[in-house]
Design brief:
5-stranded antiparallel β-sheet; about 0% helix; about 325 residues
Length: about 325
């Protein structure tokens, strides 16, 4: 990959892209860089051990939290200053921050387990124990500066990162059910209500943001020293009528070759694009058009593509550090 045509090159542990796609936050160990795509300006905020970052839907505020902290810091993007630091719960750690309408949704987990389940499963004849934690979900109303707490089901083992669909969030939850783990899905609507979602709506593995296209992933098993693994070898794309639109398959016997980072872009100007990565090659498939690809030199950690603002952000790693690069999508793929 020619690294000379990048719009931006910056050291980063990870990056966050706001819902509006106008801001990208690059996080490092001791500071974060906030990059505004439209003005091509970056300003640095000195902050250590940042775990979560989030920008509200109106691009006014940056919210962040640290590791092992239940405190929420609020930064004014227009003024370039911290406004306040709010302690939600001292014994809890913020797991996730997500924007919703004019507010943000925060998921917290108790730092201390409330109990453990014995004899739950065995691995190589060694007894393992699963720990239960209390979770709390709340909505922070920016205008009123108030927290609204949302009731959660009981017996939760794990709440995974939410899936965003049509400005709502679906929370996959693992529930303890008669000494077994069951994954259920709850949807958080715009009225701060959590309701059980029909499993049939989530029978695919990946969903476009507008819920018009779906992906099914197929895996192959393999073993290394009697330990079982599986690799993603086939990706199939469907429309909302369950018609197959596209598929790509890896027929190599080398199980180190696996598809990764399979995601949808946000729809823009009636365009939907699916992108994925395998063996140093990034693939881009625009719905009902041809497949594009581009090879890169370093190991790829993450990709984000914005059709609205015509950019692609790549985070790569080598032995020294992780770097983030930004390019124009149209030039990067020769579209």
């Amino acid at each position: 990959m020619n690294m000379e045509n990048e719009i931006l090159k910056i050291k980063s542990d990870y990056e966050y892209v706001s819902q509006s796609e106008n801001y990208i936050v690059f996080v490092s160990n001791t500071f974060i860089n906030v990059y505004h795509v439209l003005t091509n300006k970056t300003h640095r905020i000195n902050k250590v051990h940042v775990k979560n970052v989030c920008i509200d839907a109106n691009d006014n505020y940056l919210f962040l939290s640290m590791f092992e902290s239940g405190c929420l810091s609020i930064y004014d993007l227009k003024e370039g200053t911290f406004l306040k630091k709010k302690t939600i719960l001292r014994n809890y750690e913020i797991e996730n921050i997500s924007p919703m309408n004019d507010d943000i949704v925060i998921l917290l987990r108790n730092k201390k387990e409330k109990g453990k389940i014995k004899d739950f499963y065995k691995f190589k004849n060694d007894l393992k124990e699963l720990y239960l934690f209390d979770y709390i979900l709340c909505n922070y109303q920016i205008k009123t500066d108030k927290f609204i707490y949302i009731d959660l089901p009981t017996n939760i083992f794990l709440i995974e990162h939410p899936i965003e669909i049509k400005h709502q969030y679906i929370y996959p939850m693992q529930i303890i059910n008669h000494n077994d783990l069951k994954t259920v899905y709850y949807i958080l609507n715009q009225h701060n209500r959590l309701s059980l979602l029909d499993d049939d709506l989530l029978k695919y593995d990946l969903y476009s943001y507008d819920f018009n296209y779906f992906v099914r992933k197929e895996y192959k098993p393999f073993k290394i020293e009697d330990i079982e693994y599986k690799v993603l070898y086939k990706i199939t794309l469907y429309d909302s009528f369950q018609n197959e639109l596209f598929f790509i398959e890896n027929n190599q016997d080398d199980f180190s070759a696996t598809f990764e980072i399979c995601e949808f872009t946000r729809a823009y100007d009636n365009k939907n694009i699916l992108y994925f990565y395998m063996n140093s090659t990034i693939y881009l498939y625009e719905i009902n058009k041809e497949l594009n690809s581009r090879q890169i030199d370093n190991t790829l950690i993450s990709v984000y593509i914005s059709l609205k603002n015509d950019y692609i952000v790549l985070r790569t790693s080598n032995r020294q550090c992780s770097m983030a690069y930004m390019y124009n999508v149209s030039q990067f793929f020769d579209l």
